[in-house]
Amino acid sequence: MSTLVIVESPTKARTIRNFLPSNYRVEASMGHVRDLPSSADEIPETVKGEKWAQLGVNVDADFEPLYVIPKEKKKVVKQLQDALKEATELVLATDEDREGESISWHLKQILKPKVPIKRMVFHEITQDAIRKALKNCRDIDEQLVHAQETRRILDRLVGYTLSPLLWKKIAWGLSAGRVQSVSVRLLVNRERQRRAFHQATYWDLKALLEKEKSPFDAKLVTLAGTKVATGSDFDETTGQIIVGRNVVVLNEAEALALRERLLDKTWTVSNIEERPVTRKPAPPFTTSTLQQESNRKLHLSARDTMRIAQSLYEQGYITYMRTDSVHLSEQAIAAARNCVEQMYGTQYLSPQPRKYTTKSKGAQEAHEAIRPAGSTFRTPQETGLSGLEFRLYDLIWKRTVATQMADSRQTLITIDLQVEDAGFRSTGKRIDFPGYLRAYVEGSDDPEAAIEDQEVILPPLKVGDHPECKELEAVGHETQPPARYTEASLVKTLESEGIGRPSTYASIISTIIDRGYAQMNGNALIPTFTAFAVTSLLEKHFPDLVDTSFTSQMEQTLDDIATGEAQWLPYLRQFYQGEKGLETQVKERESQIDPAEARTVELENLAAKVRIGKFGPYIEAENGDGVVTASIPKDLTPADLDPEQVETILRQKTEGPEKLGIDPETGEPIFILIGTYGPYVQLGEVSEENKKPKRASLPKGTNQEDVTLEMALGLLALPRNLGIHPETGAKIQAGLGRFGPYIVHDQGKEGKDFRSLKATDNVLTIDLQRALELLAEPKKTRGGVRSKTKTPLRELGNHPSDDEPVNIYEGPYGSYIKHGKTNAAIPEGETVESITLEKALEALAAKKSTKSTTRSKKSTTSSTSSKGTSSATKTTAAKKTTKTTTTKKKTS
């Protein structure tokens, strides 16, 4: 008797194989084996003529989905069919969430097994869990399958019905999505708030006091018995004090005058208050909180977090990573408490086991929180993991262990001081017992350092004491606009509003960025002008689809379908074909949407119009000669576009670039221009003889008006030689690149060693000594991990053409094959352990062939283009140089 077990991935198959008897064969489906058609090519000939075929759902036949096997999955399906022929039993062991249930259902439909079928579920891949799951198999849960299928159909109906409308009314290639569009609206609304924000300025005083040689700070809080204004007292939309607030607002002159008046006066402690507080550890990780904390601590995107967590799960290190539950099993609680006792001592153990319950009704995706797998927890050092896998496991281990630790006991201390009619306050914190903070502090990598940072120790004071004022300074403040969303804060908002599922947030955020609705600036998600246009159209004509409460209710209905409390078919009919259904609304609204209006972005306090064009957003304004248009630089955000910037962009278009001066060496003019990617300086004008004059972007944070001729000359001279490395004899240069200013140690064939400059360094003035200091520091890579010399995961042998090694390495997007400068993905169906040198050589050859074809196509295109434009070039040459410069500038 032989049993075929099917899971989703080769890694998971390899891990499970170790825990099963020899008569069990474990194969991978490589994810979904069937889906709705993604292109016209996938639609079967038998239904190609049907009007619903492109949609992939027959809405007039009870929303019957058209499932197809994608071309790239046919080989996998054939392999599974062949394996099933030799089996006497089939076990479907896909993930335990709705997606996994759906994959099992599709496998059953495709394979049509004639042998007994079992559905095996587990939330961790350990020997005990797998053997227990084998003894407790069940049938496929049809309600879970209906919930997943309904979600898939809903997403297809929204996307395929609204996206074509956006193509017609705004721009080709745009997309709408059930959760995506709501997420984009959140970003747009935050940007609108930033645009409406009015900055306010206020001042206060800060004192450095000393008692018995122990210094401490104090801040002005009252003046003549009235509270002194802080940032929270100002209305963001007016910049004025919120109506009803009785506060004193100090300007600079008043603050300086108050400082002078208080100097050399006697300070008296008027009140001391100590308040004990208890802090409890945070619950163990769910999908959402793991994404948030990983983004804060490790600077990982939601997508990277889920990719690494998936790998840890499939290798058997953690429990299932798609879960809304904070519940820990008795086994997990015992394992965590054992870790606390062994590593920190019994005094750090919580008196009673902590049990967490999930408040969200929809928390049904899995039975447990994300935690280390097994009945005993391996410490991070015991796993043998490295890089980001080690750091993410370390995060999960610490968070889980901390849940069973004692509370942190702290004392908050407030000291009020009086000097004449001014009241000052000093606050401190004493950690009486760190408790769980010994293992885990949110937002910090090093718990011990974080504990020290959290403590603010004040000297022993009593009422009536007269500490000495050592320094007193007036401090100015400016209120700040609402912070843009980061991936972490967007995920938190989506979850709190009940929008989408945490397991889909990574792909949603990636889609928003990939489709041009947002760009990442540092850690912030900034919506584009296109996002503004699409959101405005949907708000005006399809308000329900971008309403958070409406979308949240949809999620609740999907949860109800999963539990059998709601029926999927009536819901789909109402949503799509009802009196206010999506299909009905689109038919009614399409003729009412004016494309010119839809492509226009309305921004407050801006006379010029912003429109979405074929090649991106542009400004349109009237001048004496008619309408002038100019492209908007890609790094200019909707919140930051003001009348002054509009004037600069339009002036450059009509009058040509601003001239900073003359290069003393060449005698050519130096211009400052605004291009697609922001402001830059240019040496000379564009002409027939000088088609590509030298250009240099401004360093990040440099204002256009602050650029001098000297600075421009320095930027145009980059990269600049700093000298020779004393150990290697190789040159060191400073330059400005795509990711900012840098230094590079160029060792020729040995390679180039780059370092980014610190915020305090200046690329135009940095010297050799400082460069050597930076090069001596360990190099940082993505997520802040210190890089090491890469060692291959596996050495396959030497390439027959040049006898150079062919190795397998681990990269940020998974394992890959490397030979010389050529990298190739491991072929589908192969693993690090199974791939042979022969297969690797085929993959490398295919990658080289693809590169050659791409280069050949580019060359042909370039040649054809140059022939076709030769006459146009002659015509252009006869025009004024300034106009030529402006035209070129738009594409820089």
From TrEMBL:
Compositionally biased tracts (Low complexity): 859-879
Annotated site (Interaction with DNA): H32, R151, R152, D155, Y160, W167, R322, R515
Active-site residues from the entry: Y320 (o-(5'-phospho-dna)-tyrosine intermediate)
Spans annotated as Interaction with DNA: 175-180
Gene3D superfamilies named among the record's database cross-references: 3.40.50.140, Topoisomerase I, domain 2 (1.10.460.10), Topoisomerase I, domain 3 (2.70.20.10), Topoisomerase I, domain 4 (1.10.290.10)
Domain Toprim: 2-126
Residue stretches of biased makeup (Basic and acidic residues): 792-802
Domain Topo IA-type catalytic: 141-583
Catalytic activity, as annotated: ATP-independent breakage of single-stranded DNA, followed by passage and rejoining
UniProt EC number: 5.6.2.1
Pfam family, one: Topoisom_bac
GO molecular function, one term: DNA topoisomerase type I (single strand cut, ATP-independent) activity
SUPFAM superfamilies per UniProt: Prokaryotic type I DNA topoisomerase (SSF56712)
Keywords: DNA-binding, Isomerase, Magnesium, Metal-binding, Topoisomerase
Stretches the record annotates as Disordered: 779-807, 845-892
Family, as annotated: Belongs to the type IA topoisomerase family.
Subunit relationships: Monomer.
Function field: Releases the supercoiling and torsional tension of DNA, which is introduced during the DNA replication and transcription, by transiently cleaving and rejoining one strand of the DNA duplex. Introduces a single-strand break via transesterification at a target site in duplex DNA. The scissile phosphodiester is attacked by the catalytic tyrosine of the enzyme, resulting in the formation of a DNA-(5'-phosphotyrosyl)-enzyme intermediate and the expulsion of a 3'-OH DNA strand. The free DNA strand then undergoes passage around the unbroken strand, thus removing DNA supercoils.
Record's protein name: DNA topoisomerase 1
